[in-house]
Amino acid sequence: MNAEQKVADLKGEIARIQAKRSASSDKDIQEALQFKEDALRERLKTAEAAVQAEKAQAEQQATVDIEELPAKEVENEVRLARAHLAGDRKPAARDILSRLEVQAPNNVDVLELKADMLISVKDYTNAFPVLKKAHEIAPTNVGIEKKLAEVAFFKGSLGSIDAQLRTMSDSPFIAEGDMKANPTVGTILSAFIPGSGHLAVGMTRKGLVYLTIWVLTVIILIFLVKAEAGAAKLQHRSFSPSMPIIGFGFIAAMDYFVALFEVAALGRDKTLSKRPTVERPKPPVDLPFE
Q: Per the confidence metrics, is the pTM higher than 0.70?
């Protein structure tokens, strides 16, 4: 019987004695039970001390077993993990990383490898603190500093494909399918249904807003027009639009034209179709050849 089981048995026995003492009205029996409970409590203290000693010994043994690997061995393991990652063998790379995290938790190369693996699955939120820790350990590492800045930037703009497109960055977070149509096609679609052009070019959030406003206002307008026409027919008078009809008609018109002109403006935005021209220095052709 191990120490933890012994502690549990002693606690159970003490609880049973306490129940018996509470149920008994005989004073002599209560005193006898109290004497037995006190003896068990002394044994319980000894057993709990043994449990604590076992835990301390286990922790000490774990500390001895988990020694940081030499830097050269860590470098070789990291290189092997990166080879697995490049070969799309992520489970093998994760196994190596899990071992390295235990044996070399504060190694900069291990932290950078972990961040790279998180970035490979687009987990930028968790990659940021890992890179931040690596940068604190190695503040002069330019590569880590650059990755930290990139992850911080795209972590803040993640979810806004439109904002990322406007920055014209080489971000891996924008897939080819995110821009599903060019602005010209989007303008044509917006001319039929407001918001559909935004959805086509990847501006999902705005597209849903414009489309929802359009659908709701059209439904309300149809209901109001039918109600007004029915009332005019019953009263034998000519149909004339009421203020609610004019108001919702104005909202529908504004939604239509704003959505249309906004998508059309994308086609005139050169940053969406053409990268800025970079002036490159010309080589000196008038110098003598050496």
A: no
